[in-house]
Specification:
The protein is mainly β. Helices cover about 10% and strands about 55% of the residues. The two termini are about 40 Å apart.
């Protein structure tokens, strides 16, 4: 009798978990996105204080980005993007790619994290064309629109991101932005 009761509880719990997963944890499709960010950058040797104030002089820059994010139903995905940044030293363009993991909570709240070590960026034009860099990517939270046709994102809190360039320079930076994602292929979830 006890064995049967345990099997019923396990089967019911597994079925409920699977139903929740079908409704709340799957996102499929390819999304085009665009957005703009503003950043402050400091030397990595100086960085930022715990309250996110810089420890030294900062460089202010902004960039626009457009690209494609692919969401797989298993909670993984990829990002490929192009960007154009400007600061007082001029402008530059680049391309980047990285892998992500994501979760969806109640009320279609989306949380996206970059897979550590997968981000790469190549600078295509500008004063330092040809350099590559790796960076930490800040977590992002978003809301999924009706039928998963649109997604909006924001960074939930300031995050210090470390950047290492192929010329050996290292930086600490904090960026904010709010990209919009529009599904261009895939299924309603």
């Amino acid at each position: 009798m006890h064995r049967f009761f345990i099997l019923v509880v396990v089967a019911t719990t597994t079925a409920s978990t699977a139903a929740f997963a079908d409704d709340h944890v799957r996102l499929r499709g390819t999304y085009a996105f665009t957005g703009m960010s503003f950043c402050i950058r400091d030397s990595a040797s100086l960085g930022f204080n715990p309250n996110f104030t810089p420890k030294g002089p900062v460089k202010l820059f902004s960039y626009t980005v457009e690209g494609v994010m692919v969401f797989h139903a298993d909670g993984t995905g990829t990002v490929n993007a192009g960007d154009f940044s400007v600061d007082t030293g001029g402008g530059e363009t680049g391309v980047s790619s990285y892998q992500i993991t994501y979760t969806i909570g109640p009320d279609d709240k989306l949380s996206v994290k970059a897979v550590p070590g997968t981000y790469s960026h190549t600078i295509l034009t500008g004063p330092i064309a040809g350099l590559t860099q790796v960076a930490e990517v800040a977590d992002a939270n978003g809301l999924i629109g009706e039928g998963a046709r649109t997604i909006t994102f924001v960074h939930p809190a300031p995050t210090v991101q470390m950047v290492t360039r192929s010329d050996g320079n290292q930086y600490a930076q904090i960026c904010n932005g709010s990209p919009i994602y529009i599904r261009i292929s895939g299924e309603d979830r």
